[in-house]
Amino acid sequence: MIIGTQILARELPSLLEGRTRERVFIVVEEQVSELHPDLFALLPEVLPQAVIRTLQGGEACKTTESLGLLWTWLSEEGATRRSTLVLIGGGALLDLGGFAASTYMRGIETIYVPTTLLSMVDASVGGKTAIDFLGVKNLIGSFHPASEVIVDIDFLRTLPLEELLSGYGEVIKHATLMGGEAWREVCRIGDPVGLMDEEWQMLIEKSIAYKTAVVEADPKEQGLRRILNIGHTVGHALEAYAYQNEFRRTLPHGEAVVFGLIIESYITMRQIGGNKEYIRQLMTLARDLYSPFFFTCKDYPELLRLMRCDKKNAAGTITIMGVVAPGDIQPVELTDEAKIKEGFDFLRETFGS
After folding, report:
1. Which residues constitute the domain of residue 222?
2. How much is the pTM?
3. CA-CA distance, 269 to 276, in Å (whole number)?
4. Which of 106, 188, 220, 298 is catalytic?
5. Are 318 and 340 in contact (CB under 8 A)?
6. Is 275 a catalytic residue?
7. Residue range 74-88: mean pLDDT, rounded
8. For a Cys staple, 97 with which of 87, 176, 195, 226, CB 3.0–4.6 Å?
């Protein structure tokens, strides 16, 4: 993991020079190439032998069609098992490209260059790759860790506000997991807009270090790593529902996770007990950063169906990783739909409806 500011043009060639790979293939997210035309133009100069293409990013790219497009491109351009695929873009592109790399010829090496805050602190670490299928987020995927990750803070300068705040949702999640000073720090920061590069780098390094430690202890999500899913059972359902139905507004992933955290923490408190002060602090952060997400009780059946598709579930029981307090996470089995609906009601009634 290499982290710094304005380092990509220097570090990427250095990384590749030290590897005995046959060919280098680079996929750049279209929006990144448009926002950073100088960098996109520089890549062929610093890596003259590389095969470069652009691809649409965002959740819409995580389809079987896009996957087939990448497989076809790699095959037609002569990629072999000793090739390296470099992915420059946001989390969705890393998910898609990583899955393509994990399955092409049973696996080729990847280097990630995350360009959004969300992908820096989340998608770039842990080796999870996936596409969406049958309306379910990340239903088809694999574990395929990147060989190297380059985090260039400079990309945050051109990141739309909505994307920055979405990524900050995962920073809030990691601070919840760490507890203690990490949680107090995000509460002190509140709105992160205006943070200096050095401050961003510190926050990102802490998030990455924490997630890396958890992943190394449980690479295939057999136990400890499940704690990284706090907020995700409900959050993924909200995110997928908003995307599928062209709902009142889209719901970026990190924002959905924060709403999921609010709902799941409330359910946890009602079922096994929890820290009311944490929920109040989390609600304050959410109100400062995000707009209300409007849904009604008529949407509950579909949200419950999507929650049942969550990969943590077993034998028909919905399981969440409940936040009892910052740093104290416990699995909670939800057998009573009424309690889940009560959590939905709590968000709607306290965050605006």
Report:
1. 169-351
2. 0.91
3. 8
4. 106
5. yes
6. no
7. 96
8. 87
